[in-house]
Amino acid sequence: MKNPFSALLLAGGLSSRMGSDKAFLSYQGNPLWLHQLEKFKVIGAEKIFISRGSGQSDWECDETFVWDRFEQAGPMGGILAGMEVAQNKWMMVLAVDLPMISVSVLQNLVAAASEDGGAVYWNKSYFEPLVALYPTILKKEIQDSLEKGDRSIQRLLRKWVEEKKMISIEIPSECIVQYTNVNSVQEFTEITKTTQS
Predict the structure, then answer these.
(1) Could you tell me where the beta strands, DSSP code E, fall in 12-125?
(2) Domain range spanning residue 157?
(3) Which residues lie across from 31 on neighbouring strands?
(4) Domain tally for the chain?
(5) Cα–Cα distance, 187 to 82 (Å, whole number)
(6) pLDDT band at 19 (very low <50, low <70, confident <90, very high)
(7) Which residues have a Cβ under 8 Å from the Cβ of 128 and sit 6 or more positions away?
(8) Does residue 121 lie within any of the structural domains?
(9) Could you read off the pLDDT of 73-119 as tens digits, one per residue?
(10) Domain of 141: which CATH number?
(11) How much is the pTM?
(12) 41: exposed, middle or buried (Cβ count in 10 Å: 0-12, 13-18, 19+)
């Protein structure tokens, strides 16, 4: 895929187990939100958005913030908020609490996507919806699902892959560790030690 794409950083989680906003954890000398945003810039995202939950604050930066319209809708609410403002045909999605995801992982999504479909990683028995390239035309289906109270992004991804609206990429076993997310102080400490060793 050579067409321009937008990018969305999902940073709207409650961080209840962490005890503080994960977006501001210091990782390799930068807050997590900036660490992740730099990856979008490297892969050439045309426009970058940051998703926050309803009632959450923003911070000073050059990117545009978007807020969930649906209360406690999980990542689907953030993805929909990004798609509603994105002007490009595709939107890259990355969660703020996946610091080990490499630039090459995101580049592979762009390379795998077709003119008609996006790309998502398959992790043995489930999709990785927070590291994916979505066609923004899918926003209507996400909105319809949320309006019905259905927040299962896995169900939608299975449907989209079957309909060839998304391409599924199997994660090599040696790369699975990159998809470890940070939910607690202990997990963050372990990830930090791993990347420093």
Answers:
(1) 26-27, 30-31, 47-52, 64-67, 90-95, 118-123
(2) 6-196
(3) 26
(4) 1
(5) 28
(6) low
(7) 120, 121, 122, 171, 179
(8) yes
(9) 889 999 999 999 999 999 999 999 999 999 999 999 999 998 889 99
(10) 3.90.550.10
(11) 0.90
(12) exposed
**Amino acid identity, position 31:** P
What span, in angstroms and rounded, lies between the C-alpha atoms of 110 and 88? Answer: 13
Residue 26: both structure tokens together: 């210091």
**Per-residue pLDDT at 16 exceeds 80:** no
Residues of the chain above pLDDT 90, percent: 65
In a domain, 1, yes or no: no
Q: At 169, is the secondary structure helix, strand, or coil?
A: strand
Does residue 19 lie within any of the structural domains?
yes
Best-predicted range by mean pLDDT among 69-78, 141-150, 177-186? 141-150
Q: Is 43 inside any structural domain?
A: yes
Residue 36 tokens read as 């992740």
